[in-house]
Amino acid sequence: xxxxxxxxxxxxxxxxxxxxxxxxxxxxxxxxxxxxxxxxxxxxxxxxxxxxxxxxxxxxxxxxxxxxxxxxxxxxxxxxxxxxxxxxxxxxxxxxxxxxxxxxxxxxxxxxxxxxxxxxxxxxxxxxxxxxxxxxxxxxxxxxxxxxxxxxxxxxxxxxxxxxxxxxxxxxxxxxxxxxxxxxxxxxxxxxxxxxxxxxxxxxxxxxxxxxxxxxxxxxxxxxxxxxxxxxxxxxxxxxxxxxxxxxxxxxxxxxxxxxxxxxxxxxxxxxxxxxxxxxxxxxxxxxxxxxxxxx
Length: 296
What we know:
By secondary structure, the protein is an alpha+beta fold. The protein has a domain at 79-264: Vitamin B12-dependent methionine synthase, activation domain (Cobalamin-dependent Methionine Synthase, domain 1). It has helices at residues 8-11, 17-23, 40-48, 55-75, 156-185, 196-200, 222-229, 270-280, 284-290, and strands spanning 3-7, 80-93, 96-99, 102-105, 135-144, 237-238, 244-245, 249-254. Strands 1, 2, 3, 4, 5 and 8 form a six-stranded antiparallel β-sheet that branches. It has a two-stranded antiparallel ribbon with strand order 6-7. Helix 4 packs across helix 5. The two termini are 40 Å apart. Residues 1-296 form the AdoMet activation domain. This is 5-methyltetrahydrofolate--homocysteine methyltransferase. Its EC number is 2.1.1.13. InterPro entries: Met_Synthase/Corrinoid, VitB12-dep_Met_synth_activ_dom, VitB12-dep_Met_synth_activ_sf. Keywords: Methyltransferase, Transferase.
C-alpha cells in the first residue's frame, strides 16, 4: 500500500484556515487574513476594511495567523505528515460494501429529506454485486508525527496552537493526497485542474467521507479500515473504542461516482440499529454506544 510523507511546507498551502479560526472562536470572515499579502500595507488595508467595532477582533486574528505561521515554520524542521491509501475492488450489496472480500456495513437515512430526495446510503454510489462487474473504492488515513504533541508543553497557548494546527495539517495532507489519487494513482480525473479554494468547496468529482462524518458516523468501522489499510504503517494506533492516536489523524473512504455527494444519516430507529449490529457482527449494546448520537 502506498504511503506518502509530506513536509509541513508541502501541505500548508492546503490548510483550510476557516476551520482553524473557527476552533479559536473566530467567524469565517476573519479567516480571510490567510489570503492577504503579508506586507504591512496590505495588512493595514485589510484591517481598515472592517467596521471600527470589529477591528480589535480582526487585529487578534491577524496576530493569531502570524503566530500560527511561526509555529508552522518551527514544525517544518522535523515534523512530517504521513498518508496511506489503498485502491480496492468493491461492490455494494444492499447497505453493505464488500471490499476485497471484507464486509463493510453502512447506514441508510431514515428521516425524510425536506426536498423529497431518496434515502441515501454510501453504498448507492458503488456498483452492485449483482452487476457482476467490480467497482473501485479508495481507503485512506493521514496523521501528523506524534512528536508534534510534545512541542511547547510548558506553554499552554503555543501548545494549543500546535494542537489546532496539527488537526488542520492532517486534513490538508489528506486534501493533497486525494488530489494525487484522483489525478494519478486512480486516475479517473487526469485532467482535473482546480485551485485550492476550488478543492475546499469540493468542485472535484467524487467524495471523501471520513469516519465520524454524518454519512459515516460509526467510529467502530475504524477497526475494519485498519484491517484493510494497516494504519500502523504510518504510526496510527486505535484505542479499544476505535479512536485514533495520534489525535491529529483522519481516515475514511474515497468514492469516484460522478453523482456521489455528502449527506447525513441522521436519526435511526431501533430496527435499523438491530440490523446494523447484526451486519457488523457486534452486540447491539456495543453498537448503541457507538451510534448514541444517531438514535431516536
